[in-house]
Amino acid sequence: MINRATWPLAIKLTLVMTVMIVLTVGAVTLLSIRREQATFRTDLEQQGELLLDSLTASGADLLYRLQLTSLQNLIGGLGTTKAIVAGWVYDAQGHVLADAFSPDSPLIGAVDDSGKNLVDSPTTVFNWQDNQLLAGKAVVLGRQTIGAFRIGLSTAPLEAKMITLRDEGLLVALVASLTGIVVSILLSRTLTEPLRILTSATERAAQGDLSQTASIRSHDEVAILANSFNTMVVRLRTTIQEMQQRTDEVRRSEQELKAANALAQESVRLKSEFLSAISHELRTPLNAILGFSDLLLVGMFGPLNEQQTTKVSRLKENGSRLLLLINDLLDLSRIEAGRVEVQQKPFAPHLLIDHLTEQMESLAVQNSLIFEKSVDPTLPESLVGDEQRLEQVIVNLVSNAIKFTREGSISLKVWPDTAAQRWLISVKDTGIGIPPHALDTIFEEFRQVEGGYSRPYQGTGLGLAITRNLVRLMGGKISVTSTLDVGSTFLVELPLVVAEMSKPTI
Amino acid sequence: MENGNQGLPWQALVVEDEPDNLEVIVATLRWQKMTVRTARNGFEAIEALKDFTPNFVLCDLAMPDMNGWQTLTAIRNNSKTALIPVIALSAYAMVGDREKALASGFDGYITKPIDVLTFFDTLKVILGSIVRQIPATKDKKPTTAPEKTAEPTPLTTPPPGQNNTNK
Predict the structure, then answer these.
(1) The whole model's pTM is what?
(2) What would the CATH number be for the domain defined by A343-495?
(3) Core-most of A249, A396, B47, B50, by most CB within 10 Å?
(4) What is the pLDDT of residues A369-391, one digit of tens each?
(5) Within the 357-416 window of chain A, which residues sit less than 8 Å (CB to CB) from chain B?
(6) Percent of chain A with pLDDT over 90
(7) Do residues B91 and A290 lie in contact, with contact meaning Cβ atoms separated by under 8 Å?
C-alpha cells in the first residue's frame, strides 16, 4: 500500500489542482451542451409550427371539402423536405384521412390514436420521441374545427449537432485539463522547490556539513526561513571553530605542561644523580683523610708527639665537618626530591624530650651554657607523628642555638594549643641574634648570618633549611623572632594529633 | 708495625682500585692483626681466591674493568668460593644504595669513609648476622665441604687489638 501522507508535496498539490480543473471543465462542458440542446429543441418546435401554419394555409380548403386525393398528394409532397419524415391529416373526429411516411420511419403501420387530442387542443401539440418530433395542430375554419394536421420532424440533425458539441466539449476539457496539470506541476514546483533546497541543506547540516548554505532567490516566507537557516549554520560553524580552537589550546597547554613536568622530573633526577656522584667523589678522598688520621692517632704508623697529635686531630675534625656537610646536603636533596616520607605513628613526646635533654644539656654545658627545659604537663602523653624527624628538628634547633650563643642560656619549651589543634616547640637563646634583613632568608640554604665575631660559627649552613623542610613535611611551620645581640627564638608549630589510647585491652 | 700478622685466625681479601683507600683499609684490618691480601679489581680478586680462602671479602663497588657486582657474581658462581661472605665497601651513600647492594647478594654494606675505631665492631655485627642458605642449584656438583672453608671463625673471642680503642 502506498501511504499518501509520504507523497511529495508537489504531487499532492498537482493532484488536487488537476482534479479541480477536470471537474470545472467537465461541468462547464455539460452545461453548454444542455443549453445548446434546449435552444435546438425550441428551434425545431418553431420550425414545426411554421410548417404546420403553411400546411394549414394550403390544405385547410381541401380538408373542408374532403378532397382526399389532393390531401394525400399534399402530405406525400412533404416528403421532398428532408427534415420531414412523416405527415398526417385528420378529420373533425380525429380519424386519419391521409398519411405519408419516409421509407425508414418506425411509425409505418402503427396505430394512431392521437387525432382526437389534436382536434380538441386549441394549441399546437408537440410530442418528442426517440428520433423525431411530432407536431400537430387543429385546423379551425370560422369557429368550427374541421380536422388537424400533424408532421414528424427528424431529430437526426440535432443529434449530429449534439455529438459534435460533445466531442468539442471533451476536446476542450482535455486540453484544459492537460494545460491545468502542466500549470499546476510548474506552480507546485515553484512552491516546493525552495522547500526542497532548504530540506536538503538541513539534511546536510544535520550530517555535519556546515560548509554550504541554502540559496533561495524568492522573497517570501521560505526565503526568510532560508535566511534564518543560513544565519544559524554560519553561527554554528563559528561556534564549532571556536570550540575546536579552544580544544587545541587546551591540548597544547596540556602538552606544554607535560613537557615542563617531564623537564622538572628530569632536572630532579639529574640533580639527584649529580648529588650522588658528588657525594661519592667526596667520600672517597675523605676515607683516606679520616682513615689515615685515625690510624696516625692510634699509633699505627709509629708514635706521635703532642704537637703532631694536635695537628692530626685538627685534620680529622675538619674532615669530619666536611663529611657532615655532605650528609646534610644529601639529606636536603632527599627531602627536596620528595624521597623522605614522614611517618604517622604514636609516640610519647614527654619521653622524647627527656631523652633529648640529656644530649642537649651535655652539649650546652660543654659550651658553658645553661640548658633549660619546660614541658607543659597538659601535653598529651601520646601523639601521632614521626618521632625520628621530630628529634632531628629539635636537635638541629638546639645545636644551632648553642652554636650562636657565647654566654647565657638555651631554653626549650613545649606546650599544646588544643583550641588550634596544634602543639608548639620553642627554642630560645641569648645569642648573637639575627639582623632584621636576614630574618626572611635565614631558612634558605647556605644563609648563615655573616658577622665580624671573634668566634667562628662553624656549620654547614644547611641545618635550618633541612629543619624547615622537615617541619613542612610534618604539616607544620617554623618561624623566628630575634633581636640583635639579645637572642633569637625559633618557634615550631605542629598539628596536634592525639594517639588513640588502647586503654584496657590487655 | 705494619706487618702485625701474628698468625691470628682472621684472614681477609680487600678488593679496591684506589691505592690510598686500599692502604687505609688494609692498615685498619692489620691493626686488628688480620691477615690481609689485596686485589685492585675483580680479576685479581678471582685470581687471589684460587689459592686463598679468606673469612670474608671486602669489595669496593665502583671499580674499572670489573666492578663490585660483577666480582660478587663471579665469586658466587664458583662453588669453591660461593659461600665466602662478601661485604660491599662503597662511597655510595644515597638512599637505596645499601638496599640495592644487599638485594643483589652482598652480605653487608659499609659506607666510606670508614670509622677506623669502630670498623671491627661493624664487621663482627655483619658476619655474625649471616645466615647461609645453600641454593638448590649448587647441589648439582657436591661442593668440597664449603661450610668448613667459608664459615668465618666463631667470633666469640675478640682478636687482640681491641684494647686499642681510644677516643
Answers:
(1) 0.50
(2) 3.30.565.10
(3) A396
(4) 999 999 999 999 999 999 888 99
(5) none
(6) 24
(7) no
At residue B81, the 3 state secondary structure works out as: coil
Chosen for mutation from B16, B23, B24, B30 (greatest number of chain A CBs closer than 10 Å) is: B24
What residue segments make up the domains of chain B, in order of their start?
11-166
Burial A468-486 (b: 16+ CB within 10 A, else e): bbbbeebebebebebeeee
Partner-chain residue, chosen from B1, B27, B90, that has the shortest CB–CB distance to A302: B1
Per-residue pLDDT tens for A234-263?
Answer: 888 899 999 999 999 999 999 999 999 999
Phi, psi (degrees; rounded to nearest 5) at A453: -90, 150
Phi and psi at residue A376, to the nearest 5°: -60, 125
* Nine-digit cell string for A276: 650522588
Asked whether the beta carbons of residue A284 and residue B21 sit closer than 8 angstroms, the reply is: yes
Please provide the CATH number assigned to the domain covering A4-162.
3.30.450.20
For residue B59, give the C-alpha cell.
669489595
Q: Which cell numbers in the block locate residue A27?
A: 461541468
Residues in contact with A137: Cβ distance below 8 Å, sequence separation at least 6, in sequence order: A49, A52, A56, A118, A121, A123, A124, A125, A148, A149, A150
Which residues does chain B have within 8 Å of residue A330's beta carbon, measured at their own beta carbons?
A: 93-94
Whether the CB-CB separation of A302 and B118 falls below 8 Å is answered with: no
Helix, strand, coil in percent for chain B, rounding step 5 = 35, 15, 50
What grid cell was written down for B51?
A: 689459592
**Closest chain A residue to B61 measured between Cα atoms?**
A280
Cell 656537610, residue located: A325
Q: Which residues, including other chains, have CB under 8 Å from residue A149's CB and lie 6 or more apart?
A: A52, A55, A56, A59, A87, A88, A89, A90, A136, A137, A139
For residue A297, the chain B residue with the least C-alpha distance is B166
CATH number listed for the domain at residues B11-166: 3.40.50.2300
Report yes or no: A68 and A98 within 8 Å, Cβ to Cβ. Answer: yes
Judge if the upstream peptide bond of residue B113 is cis by omega within 30 degrees of 0. yes
Residue with cell 394550403: A58
pLDDT at B139 over 60: no
| Phi, psi at A488, each rounded to 5° | -130, 150
